[in-house]
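Inputs:
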Amino acid sequence: MSAQAVELPRRRSLGTPTIGSGLALGYISVIVLIPLAALVAKGAAGGWHHFWQVAWNPEARAALELTFMLAGGVVAINAVTGTALAWTLVRDDFPGKRVVNAIIDLPFALPTIVAGLTLLALYGPTGGVGVNVAYTRWGVLMALLFVTLPFVVRTVQPTLLELDREMEEAAASLGAGRFTTFRRIIFPHVLPALLSGVALAFARAIGEFGAVILIAGNLPFKTEVASLYVFEHINSDDPSGASALAVLMLVVSLVVLLGIGALRRLATRHDR
Amino acid sequence: MTARRGIRVFSLGYLAVILIAPVALIFWRAFEHGLHPFWLAISNPTAVHALKLTLEVAIVAVPANTVFGILCALAIVRHRIPGMGLVNAFVDLPLALSPVVVGLALYLLYGRGGWFGGLPFHVLFALPSMVLATIFVSLPFVVREVVPVLREIGTQQEEAAATLGSSALTTFRRITLPAIRWAVAYGVVLTMARSLGEFGAVSIVSGGIAGRTQVLTQYVQASYENFDQTGAYAASVLLAALAIVTLLAMTVVRHGDRSA
């Protein structure tokens, strides 16, 4: 009886939940779920055997191998540079620090095609710095590093901010060297954030398209990453070939998202 | 202290090589012969049409994702109806998914022989599919900003308002909206930036016909590939300037949030 009296206003205060939630569900379905279902249906249309035949041809395999190799490089480099940048922004002090802090977000705001063009302008055939990364794997790697730069910085930075500087000083006063302090105090503290940062960078590197298209050109087996393979196969009217690889990319994205979700739950449980 | 300086030089050097120097260079390239060539490049009819089309797409996509983004956030945090877990799981997906996959999914759905391929008006290679692609890729931003704030404020005030006889709409307008307004503003800025800059998904569904279905990012690509570097740099600088405005707006909104 009393429970009902408490429940009544609550239900009213939430308005008309079914209409609002139904609209939200409908929106997600029309925008995201139905198109992706159409993609999966196309990929699965010929059955498993056909799917593997299309997804595992030499050109597709080369594209996948290159994509994973580059994404691995992106993860390794970002883990180091992203942590160093976050540390510099939190612990160091230098003129222009606030501007640098704002510039970190530029790759999030800058259109990816512009990112690729800026790299070509400086490191391309007419750049004038003595290198030419156009149509090379190094160029593609640079483009991926450009667009993934903020991820690790922005996930690690807040955890460094909340880490007590006194802990580091205490470790140092007890005779720990700089490396030991980093390994025993800083690294374990930032590890979950670092992992979700590199996971996001990995997912981005697997799927990036705009930043790499101008730099990579159209060279199968050499600079053709998975997204370019999909694009070229749509253009050459091979939607089932494009779909097979696109479905694999979708699976990778879902796995990465699930992994990040699991990391987040692990981190909050750890806090408690 | 030398280790600190070493890390500073290393990390800022990396930032300069990967990000700052290349972006600074295209500004210099666009203006190295003065304002006139820049103006000529940016005022040609194809470029102007591309800019207009970019804005048209954003004008539909941003409000749609704002209204439905708030609805999705409310649904995720407050209402437990069957299927809500699905919304929660898929709302982040566009952040981790290749725009090419998004474009292909829409291409298959609305294309020849697709489930929605027989609609009585043009979707593919026309404005509707470009808007749908842009909405897809910029969907998570408002939701992701609003969800944590809704979790934090709880439902006590809303319940109090309801007990005092206020309708659901009034409660939302007077209690919920003021609490989430900075989060919404931040999300809208990010949605806007992503909408103006989207390239991959749109270029698959639009066909990219110059002067008809070509947005500004596609104009950059087409100009560069047609050896019109001045045109490519000029349009890029315009897009980069928009990105910098976005960064400033993000800083302002973050500041407003802190002082609120």
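Chain A is about 80% helix and 0% strand. Flag for discussion at group meeting.
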